[in-house]
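Q: Joint fold for the lines below.
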Amino acid sequence: MIAYDGKYFNVKDTLECGQIFRFCNYRDGYLVFSTDKACFAYNRGDTAYIECEPCDEEYFRRFFDLDRDYSLIYDRCKSSGYAFVAAAARAGKGIRILNQDERETLISFLISQNNRIPRIKSIIERTCEKYGEVKSFDGVEYNAFPLVDAMPSESDDDYVGLGYGYRAQFVRLAATSLKDGTLKLDSLKNLDTPTLKRRLTEIKGVGPKVADCTALFAYHRTDSFPVDTWIEKVYREDFNGVETNRKKITAFLEKKFGEDSGYVQQYVFHYKRNLI
DNA sequence: ATCCAGGTGCAAA
DNA sequence: TTTGCACATGGA
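A: Joint structure:
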């Protein structure tokens, strides 16, 4: 079991702020799934706890970004000059940016485009149920995210049947190149952020937003600020922004917040969504 | 019913 | 280089 100071680690907010789709409520806490692993995470009093197989502790330490000092990030957000960012940081003080699996993140955010979060979750869940290995954690059965070789790569119909809609082709193509080795996500991790994003964008179905999310949530590139409909709203309503071009909005935000972009984005995204 | 969702590819300007 | 539109699906 891992015990960690809860001051900057709120499990609920970290999971529900939109960066991860595979988790569920469990005994006053959450079961969290990543690749083929699972853990039980919760807050009690001033402490956050992570329970998992001992051999997975190292994985989940990195997954929850436990080696990073979030007090510095939080303080910079509070003094950023934007009241909205300060309020969002205060409300989401315990949010941490996860270090997720590259492939699972890419596939998940391919599904996310022009889609709603509950629906994204159910599509991913159905995919795991159909193609992921059956595993067990604390007596609870769950399905791993499918292995590369278990992902269908012959026909779009396999994905259409799971509700992928027009995104079926994108995921099928990605699955194909992951399977045949044309696409090596692991080999991208040493690239600088602009190059990483450019390489990700070469994947069909991956535009600026999906590339930014993958760069942030899988490669921990906190200098990227994914701009979606919610961030556009924030930019317009809370930053008094006038640009309508997403590229320009992204450029503005990334220049403004630099290495803190990803953290600001999650604070703000979560805060804005929960205001309504 | 029409609209829209953590957008992107593609054609046209 | 930027803009407009189609795209599957399903919930409000």
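Q: Anything notable?
A: Residues 18, 109, 112-117, 119-120, 166-167, 170, 204-210, 213, 226-231, 246, 269, 273 of chain A lie near DNA strand B (CB under 10 Å from a C1'). The CA atoms of residues 215 and 221 of chain A lie 5 Å apart.
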